[in-house]
Amino acid sequence: MGIQKDRVRLNVGGKIFETTATTLAIAGRNSFFGAMFDDDWNLQAGTATDHLIDRNPDCFAVLLDLLRTGELYIPSNIPEKLLYREALFYGLLDHVRSAKWGPFDGNRLRLSRSITGRAPGDGTAIRAGPDGGCCVAHGSMVHVYDWMLDEHPAINLDYQRVNDAGWIDSDSIVISACERLGRGDGGMGLFSASTGELRYKFNVTHDDQVKSYTAGALSFSSDDKIFSSCKGRSNEYGIGVWDQTTGKQIDFFYESPGWSLGDADKLQWLHGTNCLLVATLFPRKDNCYISLLDFREKKMVWSWSDIGAPVFDERLLDERRVRDAIAMEDTGSICVVNEYEDLGFMDLRSTGGSVRWSSRSRLMKGKMPDEPCYPKLALHEGQLFSSMNDSISVFCGPDWVLTSRLRRSYGGSICDFSIGGDRLFALHSEENVFDIWETPPPPIM
Amino acid sequence: MNSNSNNSNNQKKRNFQIEAFKHKVVVDPKYPEKTWKILEHAIQEIYNHNASGLSFEELYRNAYNMVLHKFGEKLYTGLVSSMTYHLKEMSKSIETAQGGLFLEELNRKWIDHNKALQMIRDILMYMDRTFIPGNHKTPVHELGLNLWRDNIVHSSKVQTRLLNTLLELILRERTGEVINRGLMRNIIKMLMDLGPLVYQEDFEKPFLEVSADFYRVESQKFIECCDCGDYLKKAERRLNEEIERVSHYLDGKSEAKITSVVEKEMIANHMLRLVHMENSGLVNMLLDDKYEDLGRMYNLFRRVPNGLSTIRDVMTSHLRDTGKQLVTDLERVKDPVEFVQCLLNERDKYDKVISLAFNIDKTFQNALNSSFEFFINLNPRSPEFISLFVDDKLRKGLKGVSEEDVEIVLDKVMMLFRYLHEKDVFEKYYKQHLAKRLLSGKTVSDDAERSLIVKLKTECGYQFTSKLEGMFTDMKTSQDTMQGFYTNHGAELGDSPTLVVQVLTTGSWPTQPTVTCNLPAEMSALCEKFRSYYLGTHTGRRLSWQTNMGTADLKATFGKGQKHELNVSTYQMCVLMLFNNADRLSYKEIEQATEIPSSDLKRCLQSLACVKGKNVLRKEPMSKDIGEEDAFFVNEKFTSKFYKVKIGTVVAQKESEPEKQETRQRVEEDRKPQIEAAIVRIMKSRRVLDHNNIITEVTKQLQSRFLANPGEIKKRIESLIERDFLERDNADRRLYRYLA
Asked: Per the database record, which ranges form the Cullin family profile domain (chain B) (predicted)?
């Protein structure tokens, strides 16, 4: 009897589907089916009549399968967009998203799509959002794409150059921009990802006065803080800290002499040690400075610089020049990369050490492409990624062995890439194209 | 498909005539209105409990279509006005509910509204998900709550009535009536669901105000007619009632607020009056050992600012007063043992109060300690008395007491000792008393003695007890020496008296300048033998006899042949031995023959001739005191039922006035080098220091032994300057410099 009662006959756009209330319940209370079969609506399953739903039956079949199996198979005759719209009608969009691609694994990535933008010139940065969307900064514009890769109204910074961007949640993007002299603008703002509207502007106050400043690299901590490298007009050089919920500035780490914090290229919040990695790199400065800041004690707890490093051979200089750095808390080390994509490592537990370069002799050396892009590093769940020219290398294991390489034939060098929402986004410098790499859903068995 | 094929057919027929494709389906101009009517009707049916005939799919599709065709705004405003309309209807029915039915009707309608809201939100789910976030609108559920708030809870006819009803019910519950707590909980929950601001503004704030008034009046009433203990009981009950009320039907966050109201009105505002209440206040509770009341007072007062400090201050001043009375009571001072026992009892009493009633509060313990420290030192003789108390306990008091109990008594004494400022004075007396105990063999338990020494050592360090320990060593060595003496000379000594010598190291013992008396011939011969034996075995030493500290056992036969063994002091022995060769001796003769210092001799004769039952001598004329003209005889009629008779010396157990002065002087004398040593130690490390800082540091360094007098420190500094240890700074005369 129980099973009998569970049966549901649906007439979707003229096609009869038989399923069970249990299957439909997987959609959750906050969906078309959840509401439809709620007691309030007095629509007991098992009644003889068909429930008519005036929707596309083909898409419904796909979505019903998704509820039955948890997996998404889109037949070639159904445009993705159509399916998404149907999913939105039923309130199943989240189900579709989580079934569309699998959990991130750098060694199983497949190119999913390439998006060609219309922005002129070089891209500054690409940042993956938490739910699979992304934003691309170009000059003074930030283009926002949702996970369906539909473009939303762009964020327009009114001709101020964007330095960095980052997602706070799936609808909020923080953007740091250059100050324009004498205009009192620039700095850092919080924007809506769906509408592109400015929601909040973050201030720097110095001696109780609100200052105009240029915000550089951004980082976000798990306890709702925003960090940004700041350059003000007078004394406000250093790292500013804001609270994400109140928007108020809660701290400022003033730059110590000779140590360019305000110009930092990269900030990285280290959750385990409660410290912020700050890296200021060539060519922004003649030398490289990497340090770890402890805000509780207002102290630089670790630092490294290549100032005064012995140069035995002028030709070696480029080879020893750090182009990007990333801290790896699990192994207590910092990974750096030079312009030939050689990786180097430093011990985070002792200060004043030197870089151990792992020289992976590359054929690349000496014959750079016309428009080279310097390497960038990223770390995701124990996998290390580095971009070099038109490819991204994946390194794994305790010795960081090269395990995969992602490459696509056009678009030129990769100027930035970002991992988030189980996707990898790579921004190319030439064609204003970015690629989306996804891990396919896990195999059936 | 159909229209498509038609199109192609047409094209073929009507050669190249291209017709604009009607890609925009002409929307029936009445379409939005019609669709909305359907939805509006549905909302009405939902509010009328008539939803069974509605098709969810149809309604959802209609709402979807409205949003899809850009009529989201119309849908939304329609929803607002429709819901507002129904809420106004509900409001009317709530307003007309009579008396007690008001809350019930409100609750019923609230439940209805919630259910309707859920169904409406189901229909409008698509709008909620797509139209609302992009258009800065309030989501349906929140909108429903806001409209309920504005049209019902904040409607002029409901708002005050609701508040008054709630407050009225709470008042009734406070006065002992039983109310419908379930209904209360639902209504309060409704206010909370409408947002913290609604709960706070529409209920919590006035509730707290009314409660404050209520408790202000009630506490005034109570304080007029109750004693302190009863009042506290009532306050405690009220506090618990309020906490219980919160747990039953208020927001948990209100607990701190309402309890602070009760605390303020019932406790903080009446704190001083309660503490000082005549015949029942804190002092009376302390006097009567009312632990329960004290505990209640502590627990209630700790909740309010300055509550505990109020209790503590009153307790401290009471304790200081009684303590001061105790230590300055002339009657008590007569009996040192009783005096110290009283202190210990007082300390036990307050320890018990603090542990039973005051939650073993550290600040109270500190107050207790500082009070004791304050009044114990009010009496300069406290160190002496404490030593006497120990003396008494170690002489007789500890017999038959288990080891643990001994420890307990000693620990308590140590507690008192810690309070003393003049620990060195205690040391002096302790040394004297210990010497007497050791020399007279009166100590009850060696273990107890040693255990106390260990305690003193842990308290004050090795220095403090090294001499005391030396005394114990001397006793042991003397035993061995005597054994050696008798093994060597035993044979030749024959039947001469038995001699026991305690060899005391100079410096370790509280010796007085030696005034050797003339010993009887038999004894001095024996003493000479011992001297030559001792100096023969130990080279480079000097022996001098402390005849004032010895004892002797004499066998005596009286007139009718009654034999007794007399236990006397060395002085007494010397006197009595004179009567072997004489019947009558005058004071002068005795003084001449023995050369005992006159004050000692008088005391000695007094104890031999004037103590009833122990008067082995007879005196002429008979009187209590010894005169220089008196004459003495053997008291032939002396009788005693004991064979052994102990003749005590009339010694004031306490010191006589000149002795006291002397001890005092010696203490002062001993302090000088200690103060100087401290100054030198400090200056050696600091090199330069000003006067005030030296005083502070020296006082700090020495306070474990005594409280150094600043005047004395100044003198010591000057003496050190004279001896070129220090110099004054040339520029700043207040600065001293250390000269290496």
From this structure: 381-609
Kindly identify which residue of chain A lies nearest to residue B42, measuring between CA atoms.
A41
**Interchain CB distance below 8 Å, A40 and B61:** no
Asked whether the beta carbons of residue B126 and residue A89 sit closer than 8 angstroms, the reply is yes
SS3 B58: helix
Contacts of A32 (CB under 8 A, 6+ apart): A89, A90, A91, A92, B60, B125
Q: Which of A86, A9, A15, A12 is nearest to A52 (CA)?
A: A12
Distance set, CA A29 to CA A25, A36, A45, A53, A71 (Å): 7, 9, 16, 18, 20
On whether the CB atoms of residues A278 and A239 are closer than 8 A, the answer is yes
Residue from the list A52, A171, A195 with its beta carbon closest to the beta carbon of B57: A52
Q: How far apart are CA A70 and CA A93, in angstroms?
A: 13
Amino acid at B732: D
ipTM score for this prediction: 0.81
Q: Which pLDDT band holds residue A1 (cuts at 50, 70, 90)?
A: very low
Q: Are A232 and A211 in contact (CB under 8 A)?
A: yes
Span B383-430, pLDDT tens digits: 988 988 888 888 876 666 777 787 888 888 898 998 988 888 888 888
State the pLDDT confidence band at A331, using cuts at 50, 70 and 90.
confident
What sections of B175-278 are H helices per DSSP?
181-193, 196-199, 205-225, 228-249, 254-262, 271-275
Nearest-10 crossing angle of helices B462-493, B521-537: 110
How far from A316 is each of A283, A305, B430, CA to CA, in Å?
Answer: 16, 17, 85
Which pTM value belongs to this model?
Answer: 0.71
Quick one: A331 exposed, middle or buried, by C-beta within 10 A (0-12, 13-18, 19+)?
Answer: middle
B608: nearest Cα among B643, B578, B627, B632: B632
B1 close contact with A: CB closer than 8 A: no
Tokens standing for A354? 């030197």
**Cβ distance of B122 and A40 shorter than 8 Å:** yes
Interface contact B124, partner A, CB < 8 A: no
**Residues near A264 by beta carbon (within 8 Å), at least 6 away in sequence:** A216, A217, A229, A239, A278, A279, A280
Beta pairing class for A213-220 and A209-211? unpaired
CA distance B519 to A295: 88
Q: Which residue has the higher pLDDT, A414 or B508?
A: A414
Task: Say yes or no to pLDDT of A81 above 80.
Answer: yes
